[in-house]
């Protein structure tokens, strides 16, 4: 009988459980994806470049697991609060408390098991998609990859089973500790919302001070370093709490004092509703704001790392292609690249020296990097005159020479003196193209041909050395593509969880709100005004943590200034993705809330 009642209870709250289920399914799918890539041993052993990003996916799994635990605890807490009156009714009808606890345990664990099972199935498809995107971005062919991983499935199942076991025990325990009167009447217990103005003003100032300190520390993170991170973490968390507990409430009270705003349509009612909700939702909105910062930060930094790859490759060598012994290369292939720079320098060498024609460098100066400090440099042009007089400038030339040439003395001769040397003549050809990424494939092919002509430039794995920009690009791409994908999918997972938590919290109070809106309807408030009031109220609850979380991200990006040369470049891409999905959750919440409140 209790099982039948439990199933009926779930059916009556089917939409709420579907929201919980969708969030859990997303978390399980992404967790499986991370573990599938990171635990595929044969795949990693046969693709050494891919194996370098394994730690990134393991780190993503750990971070996702921590956030998932918080999400499960909050989500199940909301569902328990919505159904505890039903459990109280069961006890009134004679059900044993231990039986109720067993029923709750089975409900919680069953939902978690199904979410994990379906999530892992979705994760197989998601892993296949990510594998294809990852290999396409890395520009390589990988072998021994299988999206179906028994080890990843086992890890995912065990991890979520432990999470839901803990949650199920906590849910069952919380119900048995509550008295029957509390179960039946807790939702009718009045909430004390009256606060003295002086305390509200003090907390408002305190919240603004905490946020200001935190933002200042993040902005000056280079100066304060680890101390700044610790202070920022504490002050921003405290400032976020006081922002919702006091700052917004203080702002709402000021708006209520402005007659042209407060007495327009149902604004006074809406402002009062929001003032009440902000105190009740303080901890929830604070958590949502921090999750928004994590989700948006993960998306932004992930895409930011992607934008850094060409710049980091360019920092290794200013030339897109280096050809040693270029006399062996078909120049028709070079012409097809339509190079913007095509410098040819003739060489001769003996056991002690490498000889160049000085006039060739005067006509086409060598481009090199002049480094100032870590991560910063300027491009310089070195003429033959400067190279012949400056040994430091010659370092730029040694970067593009063959390994066996780098230890020899460099000498610059006139054309007549050079031609008089008896050694065999060689050509060093340096190429720059207009669009490096668009011409990456032919550049790789020519770099590979250069490696075949000059085996000494190849490393132990048979790859071209980092004096080739294509090799540097591939090395950085292999590493940072992992960060990009981890950031993207973690951002989506965080978004699904934070929006679901906020949705649960709003919908859990719908039954009590229905009474207030019914009273407004009876005294003549038009239905479209009621709908508009709901949209405004829920909009503020969604928008406030989103705005604060966005501000957190804008200041927090300063911490990545040492890793990203332009951390604020193309912010509209991650921000646009995030807020589009966030708006869809808002729209869904408004629709579900209206169906529950407006009969």
UniProtKB/TrEMBL annotation:
Protein name (database record): Permease
Stretches that traverse the bilayer: 17-34, 54-79, 100-133, 153-176, 197-218, 224-255, 284-305, 485-507, 538-560, 572-593
GO cellular component, one term: plasma membrane
Keywords attached to this entry: Cell membrane, Membrane, Transmembrane, Transmembrane helix, Transport
Record family assignment: Belongs to the ABC-4 integral membrane protein family.
ABC3 transporter permease C-terminal domain residues: 60-179
Protein topology in the membrane: Multi-pass membrane protein
Entry keyword annotation includes Cell membrane: yes
Subcellular location: Cell membrane
Record bears the keyword Transport: yes
Biological process annotations from GO: transmembrane transport
Domain of life: Bacteria
């Amino acid at each position: 009988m209790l099982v039948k009642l439990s199933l009926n209870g779930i059916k009556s709250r089917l939409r709420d459980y579907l929201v919980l289920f969708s969030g859990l399914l997303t978390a399980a799918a992404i967790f499986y994806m991370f573990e599938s890539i990171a635990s595929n041993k044969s795949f990693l052993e046969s693709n050494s470049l891919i194996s370098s990003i394994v730690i990134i996916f393991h780190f993503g799994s750990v971070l996702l697991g921590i956030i998932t635990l918080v999400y499960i605890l909050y989500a199940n807490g909301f569902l328990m609060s919505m159904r505890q009156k039903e459990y109280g009714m069961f006890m009134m009808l004679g059900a044993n408390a231990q039986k109720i606890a067993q029923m709750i345990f089975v409900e919680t664990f069953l939902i978690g098991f199904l979410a994990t099972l379906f999530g892992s199935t979705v994760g197989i498809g998601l892993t296949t998609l990510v594998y294809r995107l990852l290999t396409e971005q890395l520009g390589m062919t990988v072998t021994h990859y299988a999206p179906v991983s028994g080890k990843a499935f086992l890890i995912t199942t065990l991890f979520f089973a432990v999470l839901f076991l803990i949650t199920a025990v906590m849910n069952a325990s919380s119900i048995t500790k509550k008295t029957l009167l509390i179960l039946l009447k807790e939702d009718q217990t009045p909430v004390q919302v009256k606060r003295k103005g002086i305390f509200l003003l003090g907390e408002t100032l305190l919240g603004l001070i905490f946020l200001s300190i935190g933002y200042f520390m993040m902005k000056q993170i280079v100066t304060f370093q680890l101390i700044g991170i610790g202070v920022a973490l504490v002050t921003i968390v405290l400032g976020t709490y006081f922002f919702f507990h006091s700052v917004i409430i203080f702002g709402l009270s000021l708006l209520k004092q402005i007659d042209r705003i407060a007495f327009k349509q149902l604004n006074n009612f809406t402002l009062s509703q929001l003032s009440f909700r902000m105190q009740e939702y303080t901890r929830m909105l604070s958590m949502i704001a921090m999750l928004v910062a994590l989700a948006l930060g993960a998306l932004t930094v992930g895409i930011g790392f992607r934008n850094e790859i060409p710049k980091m490759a360019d920092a290794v060598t200013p030339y897109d292609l280096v050809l040693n012994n270029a006399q062996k290369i078909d120049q028709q292939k070079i012409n097809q690249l339509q190079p913007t720079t095509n410098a040819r320098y003739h060489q001769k060498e003996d056991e002690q020296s490498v000889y160049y024609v000085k006039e060739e460098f005067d006509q086409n100066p060598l481009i090199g990097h002049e480094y100032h400090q870590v991560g910063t440099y300027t491009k310089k042009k070195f003429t033959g005159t400067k190279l012949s007089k400056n040994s430091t400038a010659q370092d730029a030339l040694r970067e593009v020479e063959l390994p066996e040439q780098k230890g020899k003395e460099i000498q610059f001769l006139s054309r007549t003196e050079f031609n008089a040397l008896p050694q065999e003549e060689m050509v060093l050809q340096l190429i720059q193209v207009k669009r490096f990424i668009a011409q990456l494939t032919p550049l790789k092919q020519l770099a590979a041909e250069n490696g075949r002509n000059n085996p000494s430039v190849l490393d132990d794995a048979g790859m071209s050395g980092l004096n080739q920009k294509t090799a540097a690009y591939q090395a950085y791409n292999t590493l940072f593509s992992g960060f990009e994908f981890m950031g993207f999918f973690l951002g989506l997972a965080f978004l699904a969880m934070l929006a679901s938590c906020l949705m649960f919290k709003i919908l859990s109070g719908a039954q009590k709100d229905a009474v207030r809106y019914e009273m407004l309807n009876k005294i003549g408030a038009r239905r479209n005004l009621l709908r508009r009031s709901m949209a405004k109220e829920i909009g503020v609850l969604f928008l406030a943590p989103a705005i604060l979380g966005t501000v957190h991200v804008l200041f927090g990006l300063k911490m990545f200034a040492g890793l990203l040369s332009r951390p604020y470049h193309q912010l509209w891409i991650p921000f646009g993705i995030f807020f589009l999905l966030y708006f869809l959750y808002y729209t869904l919440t408004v629709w579900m809330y209206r169906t529950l409140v407006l009969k």
